[in-house]
Amino acid sequence: MSPRKPRRAVLSVASECVPLIKTGGLADVVGALPKALKELGWQTRVLMPAYPGVADRLRAVTEVWSDPDLFGGPAAVLSGTVGGLRVLALSASHLYDRAGGIYQGQEGDHPDNDLRFAALSWVAARLCAEGTRDGWKPTLLHAHDWQAGLAPAYLRFAESSTPSVMTIHNMAFQGIAPADRLEALRLPRQEFHHSSLEYYGQISALKAGLVHADRITTVSPSYAEELMRPEFGFGLEGVIIERSQALSGIVNGIDTSVWNPAEDAAIPQNYDTAQLGNKQANREALLEEFGLGPTPGPLAIVVSRLSHQKGIDLLVEAVPEFIQLGGSLVLLGAGDADLEHRLRTLADHYPDRVGVRIGYDEPLSHRMFAGGDAVIVPSRFEPCGLTQLYGLRYGTLPVVAATGGLRDTVIDASVAGLAGQAATGIAFSPLDALALGRALARLVALYADPPTWCQIQRRAMMANVGWTLSAEHYAELFDELVASR
């Protein structure tokens, strides 16, 4: 066994992290990557806001940093552990103790989100400069999405020697603030120009990170390429092109100890590639849980935020034909009110074949992946996506739009894919309801061929969807940056 590299310390900065708080895939990545990096000699601490209840879930809590005036009130960083993860929770009641979600209240987005996450970024830069009271000091900063976008900028403005990496999980969300917020956000006015903070007359936290980080990563190689095009770049494609030499696409992984059908305590019947017959018990239990009748064709699942980006409107259009071909659908998700209404209407129209649950339920999602035959991911754009990776892991064949990380992780059951015994799912393009409908028809045909279906299932379950390879890419990037200083 080769010796480990010298231990290094990375400060990972994000707005959410599993198992403490989650609204999407960002939290899964932030919670899982540190475990894989640890095996490669990188010690990670995750800096995140201490939303209500977060500090209570940490063990062995100590205060390791404080400031009497962090953007309008006192603040402290509390160090503790949860599930083997070292967390630095930023406690600042004036910023994070409030009702509603972590980004939104009953009236929409919290009006001071710019200040709330600028504070998180400011503290990240301070910790890089000062370290913590228990003697820990990061050698590298890893910022995730716009909520941490100002951290690399604060480092650069302070002329810090600490290198930084900015990871884009979703370019659509950019942390926009009015130009008159510069002073409140402790940003130098001389940096308000198109090569730094300015974005069409406003401030963009994400752009600040992209401009000032030493390196940029996205969560899949295809998404890195797509971001150079206007339809995916959301006005920042020029920045990506300009910084293309500093850009890497590293596909996400999943925590294969949490998502493991052979040991998952949340599912009725465990199984692996040698016991695929046991998956049938999960299928029957899922149909019963949603109150559906027998289905002659594949049982498809959808676990998704309900939005235009996720292509849920395309799904609504394509499902009736899928039902006619013998398929059934169960869906879990929440989001756009009109899409929620359209899905409920669909379920009312096909009560024996379509089941819909509006909301978020982690244990149910596990039961759905275990019981479904296929998982549909019709996103119009998808930086990486984790849903299709869960599907591969559970032998629930992904039906995906050929975009971003979906294209990078699912091998289409085309003539060539089947002949070469490489297929792990179905990919479709263009991104419209007609193409999705044709993909679902292909799914029904594959399901009607049990030997081929089982071969694809086993191949999908053997796909490398964990963090090992991706963590190695991150570790190499981190090592290169630290060595260059």
How is this structure best summarized?
With 485 residues, the protein is α/β, with parallel strands linked by helices.
- Give the N-terminus to C-terminus distance in angstroms: 29 Å
- Label the overall shape: globular
User: What Rg do the Cα atoms give?
Assistant: 23 Å
Instruction: Give the low-confidence spans.
Output: 1-6
The biggest beta sheet is recorded as: 9 strands, mixed
> Structural class, from secondary structure content?
alpha/beta
Give the mean pLDDT.
Answer: 96
Strands in their spatial order, largest beta sheet: 3-4-5-2-1-8-9-13-14
The portion of residues assigned to helices is: 25-40%
Name the CATH homologous superfamily of the largest domain: Glycogen Phosphorylase B
For the record, the CATH class of the largest domain is Alpha Beta
Number of domains: 2
Q: Helix segment count? A: 18
Q: How many strands? A: 20
β-strand percent reads: 15-25%
Give the second-level CATH assignment, the architecture of the largest domain. Answer: 3-Layer(aba) Sandwich
CATH topology of the largest domain: Rossmann fold
Report on the architecture of this protein.
- The protein has 485 residues and is of the alpha/beta class.
- The chain folds into two domains: 8-253 and 468-483, 3-Layer(aba) Sandwich (Rossmann fold); 273-461, Rossmann fold (3-Layer(aba) Sandwich).
- It has 18 helices and 20 strands.
- It has helices at residues 25-38, 93-96, 113-130, 150-157, 205-212, 221-226, 230-233, 237-242, 279-289, 312-324, 337-349, 362-371, 387-393, 404-409, 415-419, 433-447, 450-461, 468-483, and strands at 8-13, 42-49, 59-67, 75-82, 85-91, 104-105, 108-109, 140-144, 164-168, 176-177, 198-199, 202-204, 215-218, 247-249, 299-306, 328-335, 354-358, 374-377, 397-401, 426-428.
- The strands form four sheets. It has a nine-stranded mixed beta sheet with strand order 3-4-5-2-1-8-9-13-14, with helices on both faces. Strands 17-16-15-18-19-20 form a six-stranded parallel beta sheet, with helices on both faces.
- Helix 3 (113-130) crosses helix 4 (150-157).
- The protein is globular, with a radius of gyration of 23 Å.
- The two termini are 29 Å apart.
